[in-house]
Amino acid sequence: MLRTVITAAVGLTLAAGCAPDSEAPVRVSVLARSSNGQYVPTQVELTTIEDIVGLKGSVGDLQGGARIVIDANDPALQNATVDTLEDVLLKKTGHDVKASYISQKDPTTGQDVLWPADFHSWNMVTSYYNLERANEYFRTVANVKVASFEPTPRLYYFPEFIQAQSSKEPARDNAIFYPVLQSFLVLPFDQIQRAPLPLNAAVMAHEYSHLVFNRLAYATQSLPVSLSTWSAESPSPGANVLKSFDEGLADYHAYGATCRSPSGCDPRFLASSFDGGPFSAVTDARDLSNGNRCMSALLYNRLYGLDVGSFSGEGSEYQVGTLLATALYQAGRSSGQEAQLQRAIVSAYYDTDPSNPGIYQLTQLVLGNQSLFTLAVPASAIISHITDLELRKAVCNEFMDHLQIPRADLIGDNLCPPSTAGGTTCPNIFQ
Q1: Within this chain, do residues 41 and 54 fall inside the same structural domain, yes or no?
Q2: 3-state DSSP helix/strand/coil % of the chain, to nearest 5
Q3: What confidence score (pLDDT) does residue 292 get?
Q4: Parallel, antiparallel, or unpaired: how do β-strands 49-51 and 39-46 relate?
């Protein structure tokens, strides 16, 4: 479908111009969802771009032709340090991309608009635009300071990404924030044809949320100390909780970012890419509007009883993460204070106030005993950063209900008020 849209767009009668001017703002056509949910060529303004051909700017730096190999049997990887890890993984560092455009004057405004001249140019400039939109969401809605986005991340476009432990073939059909490289990876697509992931702004916002979580809740550590320390132990409850929160909050922020789009708030933001294809079930599994999801005794026991490899191997962090995102969605919608909740969540990632510590600070307090880092700990950090009492109570009720966090673990000063009773949707798994 998208190839047809792109071909039609390039086939318009356009006037060729000189080398495009990279000085922001730059008007350019991208593929974006319209108010009726269809992906169509859309004129937008890039406000952070510094090189429109090489697609470099303050929110990202696109690189093509990279080859990244993760092979546990690679002697160089076995002997790598934090300082040398990037050089070991990047078998080919790649090169600057080069997007091609055709210039046309908009008959309505008289302004020059750049139209991508080929498929990859459409794909790349839309990827950059979606990074820009995600960055704007976190700056304006979540109130993240500009310094937190530095250094500028790279986006490896269509790299060979090989995870040798699972396959010798390069991975496809994915968009990833890879913290080891502090970079995004937009992989070639194969089975996802409806709307490849880099064109799905919500998917890119999800990945951008992982970057923000890394920069704040992990203090920009490529190999987060808490995660790597706890993952070396079995079971790994603290690591499992961290990974679940990272995934669930990324889904909730992806939903939040859709509320600033022409198509509006979309709790099924994966549908435009996954529906009608081999991954259709993912849309329903991650639909935040399904308020009937509950923590099961089996999932609870996996969370606290498995090592992180087994927990992640079963995709359990996505299941717990969806429960978290659903709880937040229900609380935000019921209170009508979604933007305030989104801002409070991010403020809970990193806070040096000893009376109201952030998630990063809380991990450091229990680094030597991950069993103390239960679901209640990062949940309490979020709750304590919510200033509105009614919103706080709504979040408390949903956490107790969907995540089965014991009421006693959340009641306290600057936490859930004593009147909090929990929800009634989910059965108590402790009875």
Answers
A1: yes
A2: 45, 15, 45
A3: 95
A4: unpaired
Residue 241 corresponds to which tokens in the numbers above? 């909780």
What's the confidence (pLDDT) of residue 245? 98
**β-bridge partners, 43:** 29
| pLDDT recorded at residue 277 | 64
Instruction: Please check whether residue 26 lies inside any domain of the structure.
Output: yes
> Could you report the per-residue pLDDT of 314-352, keeping only the tens digit for each?
999 999 999 999 999 999 999 999 999 999 999 999 999
Q: Are residues 329 and 382 in the same domain?
A: yes
Could you tell me whether strands 160-163 and 67-70 are parallel, antiparallel, or unpaired per DSSP bridges? parallel
Q: b/e per residue, 173-205, with b = 16+ CB within 10 A?
A: bebbbbbebbbbbbbebeebebbbbbbbbbbbb
Are residues 276 and 359 located together in one domain of the fold? yes
Low-confidence ranges of the chain (pLDDT < 50): 1-17
Same domain? 88 vs 69: yes
Q: Could you list the residue range(s) of the whole structural domain that residue 119 is in?
A: 1-60+97-140
Q: What pLDDT was estimated at residue 173?
A: 85
Q: Which helix (H) or strand (E) covers residue 113, if one does?
A: strand 112-116
Report strand pairing: 154-157 vs 60-64. Answer: parallel
Is 207 in contact with 186 (CB distance < 8 Å)? no
Same domain? For 281 and 394 the reply is yes
Q: Considering its fold, how many domains does the chain have in total?
A: 3
pLDDT at 361: 98
pTM of this structure:
0.93
- Whether residue 339 is contained in a domain is answered as yes
Residue 380 lies in a domain: yes
Q: Is the dihedral of CA 55, 202, 137, 105 positive or negative?
A: positive
